[in-house]
């Protein structure tokens, strides 16, 4: 299970690193944009205010979309991006956990602000 999560995060980071490559297909860029939009927009399958489950859908859906988009990359682009991804992860081992924590904090803040704006 941990190996699958690591491989999904590696592919997600590889996709983000490959977005600037002109050989990256438009479909991969669109999927990456959808993943980022899903993470940032207040519209979710499960509202962020729902304890645990509200955040869990973001933690599962966003990396899955990014990993699927990474699989649409041409092999040379993916290989090069995976290499860069591994180098980044070796240099910055705290990057992924820090990114997850930052994302959770932003979603919590967004949910709280939405809750306050709705006058609840």
Automatic annotation (TrEMBL):
Pfam families: DUF1232. The chain crosses the membrane at residues 94-115. It comes from the Bacteria. The keyword Membrane applies. The keyword Plastid does not apply. It is a multi-pass membrane protein. Residues 28-63 form the DUF1232 domain. Keywords: Membrane, Transmembrane, Transmembrane helix. It is found in: Endomembrane system. This is DUF1232 domain-containing protein. It comes from Deinococcus aquaticus.
């Amino acid at each position: 299970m941990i190996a699958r999560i690591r491989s999904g995060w590696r592919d997600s980071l590889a996709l983000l690193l490959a977005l600037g490559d002109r050989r990256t297909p438009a479909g991969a860029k669109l999927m990456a944009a959808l993943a980022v939009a899903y993470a940032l927009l207040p519209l979710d399958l499960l509202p962020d205010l729902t304890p645990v489950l509200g955040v869990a859908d973001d933690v599962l859906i966003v990396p899955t979309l990014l990993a699927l988009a990474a699989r649409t990359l041409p092999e040379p682009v993916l290989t090069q991006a995976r290499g860069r991804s591994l180098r980044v992860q070796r240099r910055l081992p705290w990057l992924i956990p820090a990114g997850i924590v930052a994302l959770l904090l932003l979603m919590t803040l967004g949910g709280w602000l939405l809750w306050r704006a709705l006058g609840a």
